[in-house]
Write a structure and sequence with these properties.
Elements lengths: L5 H5 L4 E4 L2 E4 L2 H18 L3 H17 L2 E3 L3 H8 L8 E5 L4 H14 L6 E5 H7 L3 H14 L4 E11 L2 H6 L1 H17 L4 E5 L11 H22 L7 E5 L10 H15 L7 E4 L22 H15 L4 E3 L12 H4 L4 E4 L1 H10 L2 H14 L10 H8 L8 H5 L3 H21 L6 H7 L9
Parallel strand pairs: 3-6, 4-5, 4-11, 5-6, 6-7, 7-8, 8-9, 9-10, 10-11
Antiparallel strand pairs: 1-2
Length: about 450
Amino acid sequence: MVYKNKKEILRTGKIKVEGNYFKVKDIPYFKKNILPNLVNTIILSESKTLKRFCYQLAYNCGLSLGIYPASIQALYKACGRKEAGGFCVPAINLRTLTFELAQTVFEVAKKINSNLFIFEIAKSEIGYTWQSPQEYSALITLAAIKQGYKGPLFFQGDHFQTEIKKYKNDFTQHIKDLKKLIKEAIEAGFYNIDIDSSTLVDLSKKDLYAQQELNYKTCAYFTKYLRRIQPRGIDVSIGGEIGEIGGANSKPAELDTFMRGYLEEIGSREGISKISVQAGTKHGGVVLPDGSIAKVKIDFETLNKLSKIAKDKYKLAGAVQHGASTLPNQAFHHFPKQGCIEIHLATQFQNIIYDYMPLPLKEKIYSWLDKNFYKERQKDWTDDQFIYKLRKKALGPFKKEIYQLPADLKDKIKSVLKEEFSFLFDKLNLKNTKKIVNKYIKGGHHEIR
């Protein structure tokens, strides 16, 4: 069922209204009879006003049940002081079937007594998956309620990125647009933001400071902005980036140059808590002509060295690894050992969904891609390469059709991803990490959005 208006939601009497706040009065009834319809309405309704009400309701009902958005900053600062560590935090990008797959994450985490995971969505993904920050956090909050989860939810804006062409063509408007996105994300409970201005690094310049100058100055600018708009009592966890993913591997001198310039720019303000580096990966993996993914060798020595510098010299939690979900299984246990604080995972989860998608829908999507994105096809690409590289862009336009896949098929996808999440959480040393999270991350009052 898709709700037609908010009165239809509230007339059951199972949700208590207190001014602008809502509380769940009957949890079993809410889970069985109201929650599924809220998810339907968020994904299938065409009413922006009603969808916004559903976001607000999900957020408030979550708070009333002990589920709250949180910043991971205090824990990362503890890692920087070497009071905590030995784990690598997975930052999980859910591009489609967000409600269903988030449930699977909560289910796996509960079995190992962990709440140490991040749900993130990149600036680009917000565009092509048609998931706003408000929708993303609302669906995951509803999944948490469904699974009986209590505690912090770490929502993260991934690659909130400056784009070099837009930066050069219309600097003022580009900065304005990114500030607007950051504000929207903060209002949706995203208290973890990765500022990616690494696209502004100019390697044509010989001097390292000249190469990194626009990067560290832009990152510092947005750090100051975030500190101005963050909710009272919350220090947003901010990430910086010194090298664009897919480029040359990062060097210690680049990290030092970035940090010295950045710290001078921000003055006494609280700075970044982690730093993203390049150590051999590429977003989505390297696609071979037959559509398979090439084996990539991570430079763990570089990752270890940069994490150590980040911790020892700058009291950061460590280095962050992007583009990791398509790596071979034998790579993942190395990340905690090398001091990598956070690992970003996305494409492999999308790949599994496509693997189990019914052939008629898959063919419909691929035909749509061929019709609408043929201009993006490079001359040396095979059909398989074209489809693999661009099929993520169909997730928004086909969002409703994917959501309405048969329940048994979605259960199969969840089952496969349950194994995937279980494997990753084990190799990243997340077992029994709830105690350390609860030590540093405290719930509190959150203003209604």
